[in-house]
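Tutorial, part two.
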Amino acid sequence: MISIKFKAPDSTLRRFSISLTSTFKELEGRISEVLKEKEFIIKYKDSEGDLVTITNNEEWYEAINEQPKISTTTKSLLIDIFLISQTQQLTQQSAQQSTQQSTQQSTQQSTQQSTQQSTQQS
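Running the prediction step on this input gives:
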């Protein structure tokens, strides 16, 4: 068995167990049942401390294999769940901030160029 623990988007901690031979789709199904959500991203911290996305069986089994056994038959995995709507909002906010920064930089450069031209003409 593998014990899955995660913080739900409402900040409550949730835990359930599934078989070590469960597929990624079975993991998604269990999380969907618990969250009552259909669109989310699953991530875990690997042994190097990186947040790695799980999207298929190969990545799921890699995540399982990286986890230490907490008993002779059980492993534990802490995962992070990101709702797609939250991820899209963060991406949109990031894009808006980048656009605002680019606009500010362009305005500053134009102002500096105008000032330099005025100074040279004087």
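The mean pLDDT is 80. In part three we will examine how such features are distributed along the chain.
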